[in-house]
Design brief:
Layout lengths: L2 H15 L8 H15 L3 E8 L18 E7 L8 E6 L5 H8 L3 E5 L5 E6 L1
Antiparallel strand pairs: 1-2, 3-5, 4-5
Length: 123
Amino acid sequence: ILPEQQGEEEEMGNRSREVSYLMDGEKEKQEVISLLKSGYGNRVNLLREYRGDVPDYTLDTPIPNSKGATIIGVLFDPQNWKRLVDSGPPANSTEVADFNHLWGSKSEIRRFRDGSIVVCAVW
């Protein structure tokens, strides 16, 4: 990295860490889809991405840089969509950190009647 480029690279690194709801790239779209799948769990039967406003182009021209809308369709499961508590991993599991990272302040430890102690997300 040349000294004059270092500031530009730091700026790009900071921008790449920001959460953006405008998804320009395929990577960002897949991250959002993955996050929705993790969050909804079995509350949904289907998550589908649709891309709108893709311009026409010919094979002898470069693919246009389209920033068209991305639509995410959600088909909710009628049995699970209104559930108030999502049970996560056991409280002593290595998966607890990931669950807490996903749910943040909604995450809490609960003991159930069957004696299990698990991390939960309360909607």
